[in-house]
Each structure stands twice: as C-alpha cells, then as structure tokens.
Amino acid sequence: MAMIKDLATVNAELQEQKERVDTVDFKMVTFSLAGKDYGVDIMNVKEIAKADKFTYVPNAASFVRGVYNLRGDIIPIIDLRTFFHLPLDIKDDGQENMLILRIEDRVYGTIVDKIDKVVGINSDTIQPPHPIFGDINIKFISGVVEKQGDLYIILDVIRIFTQTDEEKQKPRGQVMQDVSPEAYFVPAAAPSQADSESALGFIKESLLALKHFAASPLNEEWLTRRFSDWAATRTGAELQFKNEADAAEFLVPFYSPCSGKFWDDDYAAAVKGILPDLNSNNIQVWNPGCGKGYETFSFVCILKSRYPDGRIKIWANDNDIMSISQAPNMVFDLDEVPEHCRGFMTRGRNGYSFNQTIKDSLLFEYHDILNENSLPELDIILARDLLSFFSVPDQERVIAGFVEKLKSRSIVILGRNERLTGHEWKAVGKDPVSAFMR
Question: What pLDDT digit, counting tens, does each position of 396-432 carry?
C-alpha cells in the first residue's frame, strides 16, 4: 500500500508540474541574432517594423545606426548585432527587421536578423542565465527557457537601455560592450562639415514629418541660412528636433510678414510697388490658400489703388471650408483695419465691412490647389507660404500649372523666403516681397 501511495503522490506532483507549465503568465516576442533564438518581454514591444533608410547621427557609437522617422516620432535605432559583436545578416533588399521597444518613457528601434513569433510560457520555467547559452554579456540576459524543443535566451532590455550611475561616469569615447546604447546616442564632438550636412538632412526629414515642410529649390536658400543660425546656438543633440514644437520654432522666421492677418501698410506699399503695368483693364487674379481672407481683402484694395480703372476679379480658394464660408461676410472694428483698406469700407449696424465694389471683385470658393481648377488666363497669382508645405512632386506640378495659367509679363507673388528658379522666371520683388515675372 505504501508503494501505491508513493506512486500516487508522484503522479500528483507530476500533474501539478504539468499544469504549472501549461499556465501561461509570460509572453515574449522571439527573434534571431546570428543563428540563435532570443526573446523579449512582449510588454516592452511597441510594434514591429521594416525600414531601409536611417538618418546618420554624427559621432555616435558604431551600433547606433542613426535615427528613424516612425510616423512623426524621431527614434534612435540600435543594431543589436553590432552592439553584441555578432556577425551581420545582410539583406538582399536592404530592409532591416526592427523591434520597436518602449523602455519607460522612451522608444527605441532595435535591428535583429529575423522576427519569429509570440511565445507564451510559464515564468516558473525560466532558468537563470549561464555564459554557455549566449555569445553576449551575461548581464544583459534575464534568463533562458525551453519551449517545444527550442531554447530561447531572454534579453533584459531594460538593463540594455538603462545606464547605471557607474556607466554614466565612463568616457563616451570609450566604446565598451557592457555600456548601454543610451550612453552613446548623444554626439560628443563638435560637428565637422560632413556632420553638419548630415544634421541638415535630419532637419529636412523632421520638417517633412512634423510640419509637412518639404525642402526643395523653392526654399533651400532660406533653409541653409536658417540651419546655420540654428546650429550657431546649439550643439550635439540640441541640433535635432525633439518634438513638433521644436520644428515649429525652427520655422518661425520662414513665414511672410502679416501671415494670416491684414497686411500692414508698409508691406502693402511694397507689394504695390512691384505690380507691373498691364495691357488690359480686365485683371484676373488667383489667390490659392487664402485662409480666412484677410490677405485677399488687403490685396484687392492694393489692386484697386494701383489700377483704379481696372475690372478686377480675384478667385480666392482654400480647402478650409469653415474659413472660406465666413470670409465674404466678415465685419470689423475700424481700428483693426489698416489704412490702405479703410477707403473701401462701409459702416453697418454691427461694424465695418468692405463695400459692394470690393465684394463684387472677390469670389471665395472651397478648392484644393492640388486638384484641377478651371480658371481664365491670369495676370497675377498670390500664393504666399503655400507651396513649401507640399511634397516636392506636388510643388513641381503646381508651379507647372502656374506657367500654363499665366499670361506673358504676369507675376507670381510667393512667401518671403520662397524662390522660383528656372530661365522662365525673373525676380521682380525686393525683400520682404518675393515676386517673379514670367
């Protein structure tokens, strides 16, 4: 009977162990490095991704591949193979497999050879690490586990990406296997010319991702000058944008005077001074991106002053339906209206509005400039600070459309820091007015 009791006890214990093993309380994303299987806690995995282009970071350690634009978030990319001194698996298509990890409040991209699957295990089955299980420093291994005949080395990614106080005291120029990547992400040396060019490339990519500002011949003169000013007061990681607010700060000097407002009298006079003599009294104007219509009203008053006998028509378009619907009926206090507009206003019950002659000259319509628009031949196009916020192919397509729509000796007025290039364009404006005649 005792023997039977002992066997029953053993069987009960085996069943208990089996039930414990079958209970999943730990999930990991598995991947391979140099032919061995690894895993990381799924709670630290934000997503998986593929990429083939990274922006170089000057003076960073060899395992820092650069930074990557992940849907507007600029994240550092660490090649775990290089970090652990493992051979690289070169992809034919150049696409790298990435685990996007969230460590506390930071996000990192990590390059691995191959991402496999999600594996669920019982945490009790994880064994302590031993040097025999991996080619990497044991301090970065939280344990090893066997699942269906496969042995997985579980990485301690929190330890990998978190510096100890002792590590922070080590010189950044001393690349060591047991120091976290965080210690080497911030460049230490002053940038060379090549480094500056790389940093400018990073700025361009960030502006496109964060503010839809596309670097091109249209704005490269300003962008180069602005980057020089930006770099003069910042070093290392400060050159880079941490968020959308940094990108917005960088772009502040780009915008033309009186952006989104009535033009002040000085800017209005400068615009009036570049307007050419026209061959016809029928003056056709296009103002895409007119917003709430403030600059449209300013411009039509300038045109009425410059061409008192002209029959003026302005097609004012925007893709903001709320703004475009409110523009024709705006009412103002007289003290908020610049002097060059006051002679064209009439007083009503609720305040001042533009007189009927001005209103008859304007047609506010909802329209996206990237779509075809049926317009007559034009004498003037007013498109300030608009084109730079399109992709480069769209910039080229819109400018080509300008050429088709404009009469000879007609002009385009762009933002203060935008330039039209090519033999068909002649600059006719002086700062702060950027204007070009065809």
Answer: 999 999 999 999 889 999 999 999 988 789 999 889 9
Q: Please state the separation of Cα 40 from the chain's center in Å.
A: 29
Distance CA 345, CA 355 (A): 5
Which pLDDT tens digit goes with each residue over 351-403?
A: 999 999 999 999 999 998 988 878 999 999 999 999 999 999 999 999 999 99
What's the alpha-carbon Rg for the chain, to the nearest Å?
Answer: 32
In sequence order, what are the residues at sequence separation of 6 or more whose Cβ sits closer than 8 angstroms to the Cβ of residue 64?
57, 76, 77, 78, 79, 181, 184, 185
Residue-by-residue DSSP string for 37-96: EEEEEGGGEEEEEEES--B--TT--TTEEEEEEETTEEEEEEEHHHHTT------TT-PE
Q: Is residue 187 classed as helix, strand or coil in its secondary structure? A: coil
Cα–Cα distance measured from residue 204 to residue 198, given in angstroms and rounded to the nearest whole number = 10
Provide the Cα torsion 345, 348, 353, 354; round to 10°: -40
Closest CA to 215 of 71, 388, 438, 40: 388
